[in-house]
Amino acid sequence: MIDAKLTTLLTLIEAQSYTKAAQMLSLTQPAVSQHIRGLEQEYGIKIFLKGTKGMVLTPEGKILEKYARREKALYSNLLNDFEAYRNGVNRFVIGITPSAEENIVPRVIATYCNQYPDTKITILTDTIRNITNKLKAYEVDIAIVEGHIPDKGLTSILLDTDYLCLIVSPDHPFADRKDVSLEEVKKERLIVRPRGAGTRHMFETYLEGCGESLQNFHVILEIDSVSTIKDLVQSNLGVSVIAHSTCISEERSGRLKVIPIVNFQTFREINLVCREDFSQKQLLDELCNIYRTCM
């Protein structure tokens, strides 16, 4: 069972107030203060900086918070796994990045669940950085992400390779072109993913290598949803550069046109990632086999 003092700490960090934390925990304010002092005495640290506005964690406090969240996640997973076992269910949490959510990954996971009806899978969509942290904190069992996660405690299995491409509406003047130049793309109404998105980073890295910048393009919208971007492009309200794996079905049906950009080469990996101590190797093998069958 998670230490009650750690639960108090996490609640206090969320509430940013001893009074509010006490109300949330149904404790008295002195009891909350006592829990925090108990943690400081136990570990010989100061958790919050004094003389600052708000409740700012010290470096040691941040370390304690990280492990408190990890312990809370482990305890929650323990209870969920006990409940799943009693009900004869195998339970997993899979983290995926937004672009992975838009390709065949959900279909792969759903296919696995149909083949193994005693399995329950929860999908969490987040940035690759947050998914990495959730993997290490045992909040996520495995992940399917674009790119490589360089971490000694994690193991990666290559599922596929992907690349960025320019997509336009079938009604766009580029639709019948064999290719276009980067200079031509600069003049188009461009819809991009927000900062922090993997495809955005890849595109900007490529531009930097060419001595270019996204600031030189006519960016009209920044949107996190890949589905919304595809809908807007399909309606000829702009063009976009996205991962090819996310628009294969639209390309095949003719709803979107994929036009090569001259000398535009941006390849990336799609990897299945897990902790080194993950024991359900059959799940990994089956997901890999289903993914490759669906391609």
UniProtKB/TrEMBL annotation:
<protein>
    <submittedName>
        <fullName>DNA-binding transcriptional regulator, LysR family</fullName>
    </submittedName>
</protein>
<dbReference type="Pfam" id="PF03466">
    <property type="entry name" value="LysR_substrate"/>
</dbReference>
<dbReference type="InterPro" id="IPR036388">
    <property type="entry name" value="WH-like_DNA-bd_sf"/>
</dbReference>
<dbReference type="GO" id="GO:0000976">
    <property type="term" value="F:transcription cis-regulatory region binding"/>
</dbReference>
<keyword id="KW-0238">DNA-binding</keyword>
<dbReference type="InterPro" id="IPR036390">
    <property type="entry name" value="WH_DNA-bd_sf"/>
</dbReference>
<dbReference type="GO" id="GO:0003700">
    <property type="term" value="F:DNA-binding transcription factor activity"/>
</dbReference>
<keyword id="KW-0805">Transcription regulation</keyword>
<comment type="similarity">
    <text>Belongs to the LysR transcriptional regulatory family.</text>
</comment>
<dbReference type="InterPro" id="IPR000847">
    <property type="entry name" value="LysR_HTH_N"/>
</dbReference>
<dbReference type="Pfam" id="PF00126">
    <property type="entry name" value="HTH_1"/>
</dbReference>
<keyword id="KW-0804">Transcription</keyword>
<feature type="domain" description="HTH lysR-type">
    <location>
        <begin position="1"/>
        <end position="58"/>
    </location>
</feature>
<dbReference type="InterPro" id="IPR005119">
    <property type="entry name" value="LysR_subst-bd"/>
</dbReference>
